[in-house]
Structures are given as structure tokens and as C-alpha cells.
Amino acid sequence: MVPAVIEDGVAELAGPVRARGSSARAIAAAIKGQSYELIICGTESTDGSSGAVPAQLAELLGLPLLSFAKKLEVSNGKAQIDRQTDDGYDVVEAALPAVVTVTGGINEARYPALRGIMQAKNKEIKQLGLKDLGLDGKAGKAALTEEVIEIKAAEARKAGEIVEDKGDGAKRVADYLVELKVI
Amino acid sequence: MAGVWVFAETVEGTPAPVVLELLTKARSLGETTAIAFGPGASKSVQTLGKYGAKKVYVHEDPAFRDILATPAVELLASLIEKDQPDLMIFGMTYDGRDVASRLSARPPPPC
After folding, report:
1. Residues in B touching A59 (Cβ below 8 Å)
2. In this predicted complex, what is the ipTM?
3. Is the pLDDT of residue A13 over 80?
4. Exposed (0-12), middle (13-18) or buried (19+): which is A102, by Cβ within 10 Å?
């Protein structure tokens, strides 16, 4: 597969004004018709954290999704994962081709060899725009379904009040609870 | 608002804590329906009702427990087409996220 960068309109895809599933549709359109057995995604981006793209991609390509993989093994035309749950993990498998999302710590990154670094310089990188993907006017701003109105930092927790006991500690705590209408 | 649906994840008939929080929110928004899939789901009906569901859809097929997302997506898509709710709320759980995301890519837009 030729590495490709979807450049045109990328800001539109991920910007404050976007169309439902735009990023997934762009990726699906870029890889449709190519040969692949496994599509590996992270679980989510660290900004929006909606984590919707991999499942949307699986839906658009009609593929199974093995999500939240802590461990991934591929053999005999199947992918098997340890899927994170609240209590531990489930072992889940799917026939290839499939989409897999992996959680942090799935693997240690290896250091690239010098030969690989040199070869990377000569690799062809295809630059694709929305027009090349047949999505001109059908993704991003042109097909608006949602808009981010405001982004705010989460409110910090306020420091608690420390009541020093000078003999009247119990009363002051009780008064405080009465004030809160707890007692 | 006419119809607010809550995706009610249950384990052997016990609703996940987030489901009860969602129902509490949903009932303040409109007529609330809970959707409970998987073995034992019917045992959760009373609790879901207590927390605000006026109507509960139940399906107990083990496929909802044993196959990730897709059976729930198929059934939800047909229920949504039939009843046309205004809003559907999911917990941001491992399963809720997969189901909601797949559903949001439907119907597949031309690409």
C-alpha cells in the first residue's frame, strides 16, 4: 500500500464545524479498492476523545471491529485480541480483513534502523484532497451536522476547608453540615 | 422533546451504573425509553422503570453478549427507523462507544 496523506480540507474534517463521520469517510474512500487485511487504529485522539472514527470506518467498509486491544495476534486468516473491559479482559476474534483499535502499552516502539530511515526518504507519499476522494462538497463544512460551540478547561476542584479543633471542632463541623442541609 | 432513548447496558440483568445516571438525565428531557439487550435483560426492567424509563425494549439473545456491537447496531437501526426518537444517549463505555459510533455512520453516506 502506498502511504497517503489526506491533506486538502483536513482542517475542515476535524475542525469546529464538521460533518458526521467526515474523517472516517475520507479514510474509507482513500483505502477502498486497495488490498489490506488489517487496519490498526489508536483508540482515540487526545483532543476530542470521542473515539468514533475506527468504528465508523469499520461500518463504512463493512468490516468487523476488534476494539480496545491490549494484545493482538494474527494467524490463519483471523485476528485475536485481549479486549479491555471494566473487570479485566475478554478474548475476542474476527476473520480478516478487520479493524483493530489498540490501547496504550500494546507494544514497545522499536528504534528504526539507519537503513530504514534512509529508505523512508525515498518512499512515495501520495497527497490526496477531498476532490480526489470523491468527497468534495460531501464532507466537512459542506455537509455540516455538528458544531463545537465552545471549548473550556474542566473546572478545578476547590481546596477543602480545614477546621482546626480548639474544643469546638464537633460543633463547627455540625454547623457546616447544617449549612449544607445535610443534617 | 418527544422521545429520548437510553442504551441500557446490563450484565445478567443488572444495569451498569452509568445507565441509571443517563436515565435520570433523560427523564428531565422528555419521554424516556430504555433499550436493554442480552441475556437477563428482562430482569432489569423494574430498575430501569424506577429510574425513569416509561418504556423498555428488551431482547435476550446471547448474540448481544457474544458478538461485539453489530447485533445491537442492526436492531437499534431498525427500531430507530420505526419509532424515530429525537435523541439517543449512550454511556461512554467500551461497548457503548462502539455501538454509538457504528450507528452514527449509518445510513452509509455515498462515498
Report:
1. 73, 101-102, 105-106, 108
2. 0.88
3. no
4. buried
Query: B78-109: per-residue pLDDT in tens?
Result: 999 889 999 999 999 999 999 999 999 987 44
Taking only the tens place, the pLDDT of each residue in A71-84 is 999 999 999 999 99
Q: Where are the strands (E) in A29-137, listed by range?
A: 38-42, 65-75, 78-84, 89-95, 98-102, 126-128
- How close A52 gets to chain B, by Cα (Å)? 5
Which triple of cell numbers denotes residue B84?
Answer: 424515530
Q: How many CB atoms are closer than 10 A to CB A28?
A: 24
Cα atoms in the Cβ-side hemisphere of radius 13 Å centred on B93: 20
pTM of the model: 0.82
Contacts of A138 (CB under 8 A, 6+ apart): A19, A25, A130, B109, B110, B111
